[in-house]
Amino acid sequence: MSEQTLPKQHQDQQPGREAPMEPKPLYDDPDYRAGGKLKEKVALVTGGDSGIGRAVTIAYAKEGAKVAIVYLEEDEDARETQRLAAQYGPEPLLIRGDLGDQAFATEAVEQTAAHFGGLDVLVNIAGEQHPQETPEEISAEQLEKTFRTNFFSMVYLVQAALKHLPEDGAIINTTSITAYRGNPTLIDYSSTKGAITAFTRSLSTNLLERGIRVNAVAPGPIWTPLIPSTFDEDHVSKFGLETPMKRPGQPSELAAAYVYLACKDASYVSGQTIHINGGVVING
After folding, report:
1. β-bridge pairing 121-124 and 170-174
2. CATH assignment at residue 136
3. Residue 11 falls within a domain, yes or no?
4. pTM (2 decimals)?
5. Does 206 fall in a domain?
6. Direct distance between the N- and C-terminal alpha carbons of the chain, in angstroms, rounded to an integer
7. Average pLDDT, the chain
């Protein structure tokens, strides 16, 4: 078995960009067969410009959904996602801004509802991570920023979305394998993901009376722009080798799970987490 899964590479800025990545992540599964499962539904996808968010946006478009993409500043990637998704369905709405700002998060929801005439599905994917070798190296600024981007934004978006979500609405959060196994250099990031897992379970119990389902997806090592913008080139070259499948996952390998949790196929599913991690067994 090769000890390198990817070419050595690193990006100095975060959020990362898709264009410099080699090989390019796989977003669109040519074997995916849509069945109109989200026809006429309106979905807001955060972090939809690239990575898992791009794959979800494309899959939702194939299933007939109208999608709003919220992203930080990656205009080129966002426009490319918009172009790709528009081949299968309505052109996605692009909304640029920082979801860690509650006013913007609220405005993003209102823009989506106004543009498409409602909101049926909220998909929280946007996130950031900054590795540090010791707990002492995690600054107060980094700690607050990571929690604001990864966790506070979800709370803000849910608060704004609830007045629009119908009785059969769905909220899908993105947690991580790190919430369950931990990560020695991503302590604050892993902690945000643990918070998201608890948030998902608690929110589900609260919203079931309204008929709104709340679930999560917990990815393992997935090849997205976040990876080369987070880790050094040696780490990137071995990314995914620690999984039983000995490789990183592709964004396209997660998209169907987000479709399932958004549609009527999952009508009896709430408070649950789907683990997509290359064969790692998670109990909890």
Report:
1. parallel
2. 3.40.50.720
3. no
4. 0.96
5. yes
6. 31
7. 97
* Edge-to-edge order in the sheet of strand 42-46: 93-96, 66-71, 42-46, 121-124, 170-174, 213-219, 273-276
What is the tally of structural domains in the chain?
1
Asked whether residue 16 is assigned to any structural domain, the reply reads: no
Give the domain range for residue 203: 42-274
Summarised one tens digit per residue, pLDDT across range 35-64 is 999 999 999 999 999 999 999 999 999 999
Q: Is residue 77 part of a domain?
A: yes
pLDDT digits (tens, 9 = 90+) for 219-255: 999 999 999 999 999 999 999 999 999 999 999 999 9
Backbone angles phi, psi at 117, to 5 degrees: 85, 20
Please write the tens of the pLDDT for every residue from 68-87.
999 999 999 999 999 999 99
The rounded distance, in Å, linking the Cα atoms of 128 and 71 is: 12
Q: For residue range 98-130, what is the model confidence (pLDDT) as tens digits?
A: 999 999 999 999 999 999 999 999 999 999 999
Active site residues: 189
Q: What is the 3-state secondary structure (H, E, C) of the chain?
A: CCCCCCCCCCCCCCCCCCCCCCCCCCCCCCCCCCCCCCCCCEEEEECCCCHHHHHHHHHHHHCCCEEEEEECCCHHHHHHHHHHHHCCCCCCEEEECCCCCHHHHHHHHHHHHHHHCCCCEEEECCCCCCCCCCHHHCCHHHHHHHHHHHHHHHHHHHHHHCCCCCCCCEEEEECCCHHHHCCCCCHHHHHHHHHHHHHHHHHHHHHHHHCCEEEEEEECCECCCCCCCCCCHHHHHCCCCCCCCCCCECCHHHHHHHHHHHCHHHCCCCCCEEEECCCCCCCC
Question: What's the residue count for the chain?
Answer: 284
